Amino acid sequence: MKDMRRKELAITEDEAKSLLKKAEYGVLSTIAQDGCPYGVPLSIRSLLVN
Questions:
Q1: Which of these, 1, 15, 23, 48, has the minimum number of CB atoms within 10 Å of its CB?
Q2: Cα–Cα distance between 14 and 38 in angstroms, integer?
Q3: Closest among 39, 44, 46 to 16, alpha carbons compared
Q4: Residue 15, CB half-sphere, CA atoms under 13 Å: how many?
Q5: Which residues lie below 8 Å from residue 44, measured CB to CB, with a gap of 6+?
Q6: CA 37 to chain centre
Q7: Under 8 Å between Cβ of 21 and 5
Q8: Domain limits, the chain
């Protein structure tokens, strides 16, 4: 895995968990080997169990 380019934008694990608890949805984005971007919408509320 590559190092994060913009380290000033990094957040802690606790901040990430708090962000996810507040979110209703998100987008999981990837890039294929051929360079084509792909995004999958996710319902965050249904993924979080707690």
A1: 1
A2: 28
A3: 44
A4: 4
A5: 20, 23, 24, 25, 26
A6: 15
A7: no
A8: 7-47
How many whole angstroms separate alpha carbon 39 and alpha carbon 6? 22
Amino acid identity for residue 34 in this structure: D
Summarised one tens digit per residue, pLDDT across range 1-50 is 788 899 999 999 999 889 888 888 889 999 999 999 999 998 876 665 55
Whole-structure pTM over 0.70, yes or no?
Answer: no
pLDDT of residue 42: 87
Residue 9: the pLDDT is 94
Q: Torsion-angle region of residue 37: left (phi > 0), alpha (psi -120 to 50) or beta?
A: beta
